[in-house]
Description:
The chain is mainly alpha-helical. The chain has one domain. Helices cover 70% and strands 0% of the residues. The protein has 15 helices and no strands. It is globular, with a radius of gyration of 19 Å. It starts with a helix and ends with a helix. 46% of the residues are buried.
Amino acid sequence: MSDFLALLAEPKLLLFGAAGQLGIFATLILGLIFLPMVPGINPAQIKETAISIAAIGACDGPTVIYVSNMFAGLGKIDTAMVGALAVAAYSYMALVPIIQPPIMRLMTTEKERAVKMPSVSGKVSQNALIAFPIIVTVITGVIAPKGLPLMGMIMLGNFMKVTGSVTRLCKASENEIANIATLFLGLAIGGTMAGHQFLKLQTLLVFSLGLVAIIIDTVGGLLLGKIWYKLSGGKVNPLIGAAGISAYPMAARLVQNEGQRWNKQNFLLMHAMGANTGGQVGSVMAAAIMLSVLKGLGII
């Protein structure tokens, strides 16, 4: 369902997707600091629990579920934590329209928010659209093979769409398969959320650090936007940086709405979509790199 057209037309927007992952690594550090202070946390599981919580910063539910399930299957984190992590991730994805706008207004001036940018004019060939998912999958396999199931699924869906050769399968993936998967995912997660296991201090910490992760992600993207605004002589609207998270396409729509609030002639949607899809790739790559590093260290 992802559309990388805007990103390929303006490849530099991928930098916003990278900046939008700052929350993952910041939250990992915070988790390593604060988790040892929480009663009931197994000291042997602190690193894996911190990494699972940090994945919430990707603002990408499937990434959180994949990482936490892997650790739970290996006995590295409590199974009950998987449900809490998944709920936190999807809760903050849904709360992006509430969390982001105040930060966007706080970190940017009215003049910056009103900057009008030219439309995304770069043309992308069909060959480039087809080659992109293949190249990204290969690069992920070389750099961070542990993340291939995540990146591979994103790129498979995009590949089916851009080739135009399997329209029926593409429509089924976007509708029936996605709906069925979502239904069973909700039931499976709900089945792990017994009240006596869910309402714990460590669960509250998961939600607290998850919120911190989303905030830092937004701040990181906006900081890059402000730097780019200065370097470009005021030609780049820093609001685009807020779309560097993986909440697709919600974050891009928020940037569009916020930009038009201060300048009715402002159309930032395609720029924001490029940053947003960059955030999708960046979040999966960040999680994949963390997993691959752990594998290299013999932890998983």
